[in-house]
Design goal:
alpha/beta; Rossmann fold; 2 domains; elongated; binds cytidine-5'-triphosphate
Amino acid sequence: MSLDPVRPDLVGKRLVLALSGGVACYKAAELLRLLTRSGAQVRVVMTDAARQFITPTTMQALSGQPVVTSQWDASEGNAMPHINLTRDADALIVAPASADLIARLAHGQADEILSLMCLARPIHSCRLLIAPAMNREMWAHPATQRNVRRVREDGASVLGPDAGDQACGEIGDGRMLEPEALLEDIVAELSPKPLAGRRVLITAGPTFEPIDPVRGLTNLSSGKMGFAIARAAREAGASVTLVAGPVHLPTPRGVARIDVRSAQQMLDAVLPQAASHEVFVATAAVADWRPAQLAEHKLKKNGMKVPPSLELTENADILATVAALPKPPYCVGFAAESHNLAAHAREKLERKKLPLVVGNLGPATFGRDDNALLLVDAKGEQPLPADGAAADKLTLARQLVAEIARRLAAAR
Ligand code: CTP
């Protein structure tokens, strides 16, 4: 998964970014930049209150389009900007959405440009996404919570809010999400949902098998592929549980993460979850062996005449254990090989009794952002991407998730 949040994920999308009043307006400028860099065409609308915080000039420069600030704006031929802007838009994003604006939406008010546009939008073709931003007491107030419930019931998606430091100096829930997080949520909201209602369990990263309190056996897996699959599965509508070995990667938005260190801890985290998930994707590079004894104290070089020898014992195979459950989820294994990819992947498919194994060439993929995969199942082999060229891991993850969803649907 690339750390650069900007990818061409919104090419062809038409968006309206609407700002109500709040300090978080400064973040809307950065969000606009991310949206346009992701390929979206964006029109901007600002309320009078929003213009107290940043100017339309900034937003015009960043969007390359005039900014609409009034329902009386007569520059459009029919003088109806509140109608025109949303007719061919994929989504109307209100960021920041103030407590007042949410209250107005909850009551269907329409006496200024933003709420008027929300009410006049074609409800089935133009999604309404709102990113609340306000003081924590305002957010927690029963009136705001009631209004948020109401706008959700009316079909809006509520992105955030975040918790943390607030402009007023208080700490709590109500901050607007950071622009990168909003971008991730917007891309997810606008993605197809072939895994809606499904639950997906994923293992990722290496394991660390302790020798003593400061040393251990591990490997070079970065966890990037597993994290990318978690993000792609969430985008596709699944509820995702990600069991992660020791890695330094941010948790994909909307994904439940369980951190573990050793193979035993990974098994202990996975087994209670397996029955409640329809799909299990094992991307983790689980250590096959662990030191038979864990030294209570650090092994000291002083006093050792010869280097210590390590006795190893075998770890349980997490994937094979899940696949052997009486009612296993749809199990997807990964095979990292240095040669003979198809043959080794097929051998794992049969030995672990899996419906699908994803092969890749280990040394070419560990820690990198690009990869190429080979899907191996009972019917045959299929390269991903179809032309066999390398692609970034999030692109591959999305293609893999689409393949898994297709197979699940066919198996019904
Ligand atoms: N796996 C697992 N638990 C283990 C070992 C592997 O869940 N203890 C999973 C990996 O997450 C991956 C697949 O099994 O999906 C990889 O197979 P692997 O066991 O690494 O290959 P091996 O069977 O060990 O064969 P080899 O090491 O010889 O390649």
